[in-house]
Amino acid sequence: MAYRTLLAGACAYTALAAGVAHAQDALPEAEETVAQVSDIVVTGSRIARRDYTSNSPLASVTAEAIENTGQVTVEKALTQMPQFAGAQGQSTSGSSSTSLNGGQAYASLRGLGSKRTLILLDGKRLQPSNPDGSVDLNIIPEALIGNVEVITGGASTAYGSDATAGVVNFRLKNDFQGVTLASQYGISDYGDGESFRVSVTAGDRFAEGRGRAVISLDYSMRERAFQSERDYYFRRNRESNTAIVAQGSALFGANRPTLAAINDIFVGQYGTDPVQGSAGFYNGQIGFNTVDGTLFNLAGTSPVMNLRDPETDGAYLSAGGNNMLYGWTGNIVQNDNERYSLFSRVDYDITQNISGYIQGSLTSYESEGVFNPTLAGLAYALTVPASNPYISNDFRHILNSRADPDADFTFWKDLDFAGPRLQNYAYDVYQFIGGLSGQVGIKDWTWEAYASASKAKFLNTQVGGVSRDAMTDLLYSPTGGNEFCAGGLNPFGNHTPSAECINYVVRKTTNTNELTQRMAEASVTGSLFELPAGEVRFAAGVGYRYNHFEFVPDAQLSRPDGTSDVLGYAPLWASSGEVDSTEVFAEVLVPLLKDLPFIQSLEMEFGYRYSDYSSVGGVQAYKADLNWQVNDIFRLRGGYNRAVRAPSVGELFAPISTATVGIGTPTAANTDGDPCDVRSSFRQGPNGQQVADLCVALGVPEALIDTYQFGAAQVFALTGGNPDLEEETADTYSFGTVIQPQFSSPWLSNISASIDWYKIEVADAVGTLGVGNAIRYCFNDGGNNPTYDANNYYCQLQDRSTVDGNMVNPLQPLLNLGAFNVTGVDLQVDWRLHLADLGFGDTGSLAFGTTVSYLDSFEIQALPGAPVYDYVGTWGTAIEANAGQAHPEWKAVSSVTYSRDRWNVGLRWRHTSEMINSARVTSPTSTTRGVDAYDVFDLNARVDLPFDTTVRFTVTNLLNEEPPQVGNVRGTYDPQNYDVLGRYYSVAVSKKF
Questions:
Q1: pLDDT band of 20, cuts 50, 70, 90
Q2: What is the Cα–Cα distance from 594 to 977, expressed in whole angstroms?
Q3: Distance between CA 260 and CA 72 in Å, rounded?
Q4: At 771, is the secondary structure helix, strand, or coil?
Q5: How far apart are CA 710 and CA 776, in angstroms?
Q6: From CA 146, how far away is CA 167, in angstroms rounded?
Q7: Sign of CA dihedral 685, 689, 695, 698
Q8: First vs last C-alpha separation in the chain
């Protein structure tokens, strides 16, 4: 760790006042955004123009704002902007199940998901890292970022599919000269979550100025941060609902033991109070003490009795005292990441009128998730024969009282002897682009043509899984497994088997995924003719894009009989597919009026794109934008955009995979958990009998229905591709104004503001039908199944075990859903005061800035014809896994920065308004807890030293504000939208040569 020591005492940060700013007709920074001589291409349009005016709501994030997050990756700079919802990133622990996106980081504009947020690099598409088309922000070359432009609403006319919610365009410094060496180190207030980054960037001109070359090498690492180090998390969460413990427990289904036999042991031998049941039978579970082989009861109506093993962080009593709960102290609040990145570009003026460039990037990064040991329970429960040699006499007496005394029984166990499970995610992503540009020879027309080839390779390795076949060998062996490994396996109690037996059952699996993209495009832009109000300008072009997807699972997860041998991992199937598209597009900018009263200029921009997909056929996108410069102070802007998003190659062909989805713990006051659970509001409500009848119809044994409880707060849901998907469409309406007063007063001479209203209507949206909602809708939540019909669509998505009634891999189908409608208003104000102009002498300047987003509606329609629910001001429902569950009415980032000479210091305030729980949208009487308002402050400072050296310092979450609890279970937080890491320090130093 010598490099960290060298960094101590260095570093920090520039002010955020220059951080997040709308493009309010401001000039682009330096010359980095110059396209052709003085012509500029603004994100959202393909037309080169003389000014830097955007007709759509456009925000810009500077390199300083990215630095001000104190992180080594770019995602936090985006997700902290009010326009974004929290998405998967560094605070996402990942899934212990197989997945295709572990360790990745996304951006979700307006909460509409990463696959609807198009990520560009200098206006060109990047290689997707996820089969759904999402781009991982880890592949962005941060060292070369000049600024980031964010446009709200559909932009398919300019860029094609995927620009449904908007566009994030990373603009790079394209004329870099000299060498810059930069390094950064960070650590949390709890001594974990360390991060380190070092980059070297070099560039220069050559061949008498005709050529420009730049190369950037970047290394970064980020270590885990743990929940157990933070006192707002709990080591023993007695309100959870996962009843799978290392001692093991037996379940009997409909083949129940008698209460008489149970109490022969508990009352007659152990001296406990009588164990309760129903109709003379016992409906709970039987656990096994490690210390002496005696039994204890759990998961029934009686308190746990005769527990002789000590409580541990891994197995402890529930709050009600009638169950044993599983615990895991290894949960994280920040995942690890190690990344190597190389970016290089060479530009060369071949002739006076033709230039060419070659650009290449390679990113190799790795992240490893550490998860709890295998839990053999629920859908992954084991069975044990009544002949197992380790069955004690006490337990034998209970088994013999069953209607079928020789039948196997269900067995749940935390297989902690196998150790934690590791999920390693390794990615290699490369992209090469080559292009030519030049003068057409007609007026000021210019042309550009380029081709791109890219690939993302993904290796997912799981270590520490347990083989079902191997466990079955040991459990069904008449010798207890001694013929397979030394000592065999005694499953009753928390006994550690021999190393040979552990090796016998533990498995390692590896899945591979490969995504390929090929692109080519040619375009021309320039002026057509003059009108009295100015030049009519245009852009037109043709393009081709090809995407291929191939997934190969490990043989142990994809056996010929369609099963998986590894407990906790659903079967996977090899899958592949490809999609290509051919496109033509055109845009025209028409000046209508000029130099009239109240009309300094008035212009409209029209655009059209036709795309022919091999999957969905021909689709069309179009737009009409208005820009009205009233005078030097006021400008009005707005328009309409029709965007189209064709289903990605992964959405069409991705394999079926599992994901752990939380459904909560049932109580009489909320709609969480399994509705069939006797503790749920569904069972205890006025329609409780209809709910019970429906549960029996779905597979819950009738003998168990009066005492049925679901022993977990999550399910293992299945989802996969759907080749029958159609395109989704989005209509975006926007209107706003930009105000730049020209007051002579020094108090008001440097103030600007913008306000924009937007409405995004997504129809036939491609997405998964969330399993939590589907489970509730089956039981008429929100009026979705008024007749309690087992053939209802939502009911058909869940399968239940006829042995114990538990849900077995409920489905999250990928469908063309109903609709998403999002409406809101963005406000931006920037104000700078030069203190000398106010009579305070040469004492520097103050800059104030605020960006506020107001969300007016967030409507979701699950299926065509289904009810429409408005989730504005709620937490708990996302349109998809990577979209974000928080939909606050108000979200704001404000800052104040003091600058003087060669240094500055700034304070930033991040605010998120309070929210109710989304369960109350469909069940107004639900008492499920909402989320409190959240306010966090960040401190940043910077000093420019001699010899082109800069030192920066940042403290994020300065006051170490705890995240607000979400839901009813204490210690439960939303890491995508709130700071679960706590106070974080970072120092950085950069040196130019």
A1: very low
A2: 46
A3: 64
A4: helix
A5: 15
A6: 17
A7: negative
A8: 26
Whole-model pTM over 0.70: yes
Q: Name the 3-class secondary structure at 425.
A: strand
Tell whether the model's pLDDT for residue 54 goes beyond 60: yes
The count of other CB atoms within 10 Å of the CB of residue 748 is 12
The DSSP call for residue 26 is: P
Both tokens assigned to 289: 């003490």
The single-letter code of the amino acid at 510 is T
CA-to-CA separations, 773 to 761, 769, 792, 917, in angstroms, rounded:
22, 8, 14, 13
State whether residue 176 is helix, strand or coil.
Answer: coil
In the prediction, which pLDDT does 11 show? 32
pLDDT band of residue 26 (cuts 50, 70, 90) is very low
Cα 340 from Cα 221, distance rounded (Å) = 9
Is the pLDDT at 33 greater than 60, yes or no? no
Determine how many CB atoms are found less than 10 A away from the CB of residue 859: 17
- Kind of pairing, strands 874-875 and 814-816? unpaired
The pLDDT of 295-311, averaged and rounded, is 94
Which distant-in-sequence residues (6+ apart) come within 8 Å of 597 by Cβ? none
- Assign 921 to helix, strand or coil: helix
What sign does the CA torsion over 70, 76, 82, 85 have?
negative
Q: How far apart are CA 779 and CA 52, in angstroms?
A: 55
| Residues linked to residue 97 through DSSP beta bridges, in sequence order | none
Q: Is the dihedral of CA 413, 414, 419, 422 positive or negative?
A: positive
Calculate the CA dihedral of residues 278, 673, 242, 871 and round it to 10 degrees: -170
Rounded to the nearest 10°, the torsion over CA 694, 699, 705, 711 is -110
- The tokens 């208003």 sit on which residue? 825
Distance of CA 575 to the CA centre of its chain: 24
Q: Rounded distance, CA 488 to CA 473, Å?
A: 10
Bridge pairing between strands 375-376 and 409-414: antiparallel
Q: Which residues contact 410 (CB under 8 A, 6 or more apart)?
A: 250, 251, 252, 253, 381, 382, 383, 803, 804
pLDDT digits (tens, 9 = 90+) for 117-160: 999 999 999 999 888 888 998 899 888 888 888 888 778 888 88
CB atoms within 10 A of CB 365: 23
Q: Measure the CA–CA gap between 795 and 690, rounded to whole angstroms.
A: 14
As given in the structure block, the two tokens for residue 301 are: 């109506």
pLDDT of 41: 60
Q: For the residues 748-754, what does the mean pLDDT come to?
A: 87
Q: Where are the beta strands (DSSP E) in 299-415?
A: 315-317, 324-326, 332-334, 337-349, 354-371, 375-376, 382-384, 409-414
- Residue 507 · residue 556 · CB < 8 Å: yes
CA distances from 970 to 182, 965, 975 (A): 42, 7, 15
Neighbours of 620 (CB within 10 A): 13
Show Cβ contacts of residue 491 under 8 Å, excluding neighbours closer than 6 positions: 248, 382, 384, 388, 390, 411, 413, 475
Range with lowest mean pLDDT among 109-118, 835-844, 868-877 = 835-844
Radius of gyration of the chain (CA): 31
State the Cα–Cα distance between residues 504 and 481, nearest whole angstrom: 11
| Candidate from 86-95, 566-575, 740-749, 804-813 with smallest mean pLDDT | 86-95
Is 455 exposed, middle or buried, given 0-12, 13-18 or 19+ CB atoms closer than 10 A? middle
| 3-class secondary structure, 501 | helix
Phi first, then psi: give them for residue 95, nearest 5 degrees: -125, 140
**Does residue 564 contact residue 655 with C-beta atoms inside 8 Å?**
no
Mode of pairing for the β-strands spanning 916-917 and 874-875: parallel
Collect all residues with Cβ–Cβ distance below 8 Å to 34 and sequence separation of at least 6.
28, 40
Count of CA atoms in the C-beta half-sphere (13 A) of 166? 27
Tokens describing residue 32: 């980095």
129: tokens are 């890292």
39 by Cβ neighbours in 10 Å (0-12 / 13-18 / 19+) ranks as middle
